[in-house]
Amino acid sequence: xxxxxxxxxxxxxxxxxxxxxxxxxxxxxxxxxxxxxxxxxxxxxxxxxxxxxxxxxxxxxxxxxxxxxxxxxxxxxxxxxxxxxxxxxxxxxxxxxxxxxx
Length: 102
Known about the structure:
Order of helices and strands: HHHH
Number of strands: 0
Number of helices: 4
Number of domains: 1
Strand content: under 5%
Largest sheet: none
Distance between the termini: 14 Å
């Protein structure tokens, strides 16, 4: 399941950034990291199991500062990669729980 989730996040965030990103160089794995974070939060929300909720709380506590990177802060940072990675992580979790079909 890890490989499938990773591939969904990488492919969707790349496509979304390519289609909706501003002209420039978008490089790095921040879209993947944001996608993993969104996946963990969505997993905690949709699983409703004690383990899922604990994982979500831990992810929110330790990585909550990632939310500040979802909005543009400087001209040189590809915030589009961040937001599209986050969306791709949510879509990957929705796919895993059968909410959507990719």
